[in-house]
Each structure stands twice: as C-alpha cells, then as structure tokens.
UniProtKB/TrEMBL annotation:
CDD domains assigned to the protein according to its UniProt record, in alphabetical order: HAD_EP
Class of the enzyme per the UniProt entry, highest EC level: hydrolase
Catalytic reaction list: 5-methylsulfanyl-2,3-dioxopentyl phosphate + H2O = 1,2-dihydroxy-5-(methylsulfanyl)pent-1-en-3-one + phosphate
Complexes and interactors: Monomer.
Catalytic activity, EC: 3.1.3.77
Any Pfam family matching the protein: Hydrolase
Gene Ontology molecular-function annotations: acireductone synthase activity
Organism: Rhodanobacter ginsengisoli
Phylogenetic placement of the source organism: Bacteria, Pseudomonadati, Pseudomonadota, Gammaproteobacteria, Lysobacterales
Cofactor section: Mg(2+)
Stated name of the protein: Enolase-phosphatase E1
Entry-linked InterPro entries: Enolase-ppase_E1, HAD-like_sf, HAD-SF_hydro_IA, HAD_sf
Keyword field contains Amino-acid biosynthesis: yes
C-alpha cells in the first residue's frame, strides 16, 4: 500500500509550460540584466551573486562587463547556475510587480494542488529557479496567489536536480521517509535521481510528446491523471 504524505513538484515543463520560462522569463531577464546591474550594482545581494557567478566561471578578477556578457551567454544556454538563477529572480520580481506578466500554469494544476492540500498532503517545489523566483512564480500565477498551498521550496542550493543526494537532503528537510514522497517532473534524469533516493515518481509528458514505451516512471499527461495510491 503506497502512502504519499507530501508531493514535491518541478516547475518548467511540469506545473507550467517550458515556453513561458523560455519565451517570456528568460528574454525579460536578458533584456534588463545590464541595466539592472548598472542600477543596483551597489546592493550587497547583487554583488554577492555577481561574485558567485565570476567564481563559478573562474573569472573573479574580470571586469564587471565581462561578467555581464558571461551571464547573458548563460541565459541563452539556460545554464543551471545558482548565481544566474538568483540574479534572474531579482529581475523577474520587477516584472511581476509591474504586471508585465503572470506565471503560466496548466489549466488543471491549481485545482489539483488545492485538492491535494485539502486531502492533507504537504506540497513543495524543487526547481532550478531560485527559491525567491519560485515564490514569485506562485505568488503571481495565472490562478492567483498559490503560495499558501506550499510548505517549502528547494532550489539548486540544496543540490543539482540530477543528483540522488539532493533528494535525500530534501527528504531530510521535509522530515519524511522517501517512500512517502512523490516527485513530479518532466525530466527523466531528475526522476531517476529521485527514484534512486527512494521517492515515488511521476513523469509529466505534456506537450504532445510520444509516450515512452517502457517508461522508467509512471507517465502522466497532466496532474488530473496522477494517482496517489495503489
Ligand atoms: C521559477 S521560474 C524560473 C524557472 C527556471 O529558471 C528554470 O530553469 C526552471 O527549471 P525547472 O527545474 O523548474 O524545470
Ligand atoms: Mg522542468
């Protein structure tokens, strides 16, 4: 008998479309990053993440303009850099607050998250986006402010999403045995890592992709198809 007590969900490709992140959020950050650094460059938080990006690239002594150029390249590559994601989150905050966009959610997601909460399940997010960016995402979602539904958030400061140890850390932080946790994602390597840590897994395959034949994980076309017991 499977007993799921908490659900940990990915964002891009799972609760929300890849295109919203790639075609709205990333270009928004890319266009504004140079001016944002110019305007806010004296702020300790921004200086910290610029230094972290430089350290990550081995360019600690480089001029600030070189770091900016590097960050723009990383945005184009969708490099899962913790420093980049933190900087992007700082820029995205302005866009949400200004009403420039609302975070995309697939149509069934908000209702299903509410159902799971009403059934006593705890909900968490694990995304490459920074924790502040995740909170903004669900605070300013197309379905309104969903942050009251979530008990916690994890990003790559917990660890890389394709490493099993990251999921062990998440289970410890949630204070649940992995066998009582379900991880939902669109990326099979992330699901493999979670499964190796003992999590139950759900593979969201949304954008009319061919269903894999011998799926390594239970495959779902949307959140309404997800079953929590068997
Ligand atoms: C929190 S919105 C920005 C998401 C992001 O930058 C990203 O790379 C999403 O990757 P995920 O791990 O959620 O698929
Ligand atoms: Mg994803």
């Amino acid at each position: 008998m499977i007993e799921i007590r908490a659900i940990v969900t990915d964002i891009e490709g799972t609760t929300s479309s890849i295109s919203f992140v790639r075609d709205v959020l990333f270009p928004y950050a890319r266009k504004r990053l140079p001016a944002f650094v110019e305007t806010h460059g004296d702020k300790p938080e921004l200086q910290h993440w610029l230094h972290e990006a430089a350290r990550e690239a081995g360019l600690v002594e480089a001029p600030r303009q070189d770091i900016i150029e590097l960050l723009l390249q990383w945005i184009d590559q969708d490099r899962k850099s913790t420093a980049l994601k933190a900087l992007q989150g700082m820029i995205w905050q302005e866009g949400y607050a200004a009403g420039d966009y609302r975070a995309h959610l697939y149509p069934e997601v908000a209702a299903r998250l509410r159902d799971w909460r009403a059934d006593g399940l705890r909900l968490y997010v694990y995304s490459s986006g920074s924790v502040p960016a995740q909170k903004l995402f669900f605070r300013y979602s197309e379905a309104g402010d969903l942050t009251p539904l979530f008990a916690g958030y994890f990003d790559t400061e917990t660890g890389p999403k394709r490493e099993t140890e990251s999921y062990r850390r998440i289970a410890d932080a949630i204070d649940e045995q992995p066998r009582h946790l379900l991880f939902l994602s669109d990326i099979v390597e992330e699901l493999d890592a979670a499964k190796a840590a003992g999590f139950h897994t759900g593979w969201l395959i949304r954008e009319q992709q061919p269903m894999p034949d011998a799926a390594r994980h239970p495959v779902y076309a949307d959140f309404d198809a997800i079953t929590l017991s068997s």
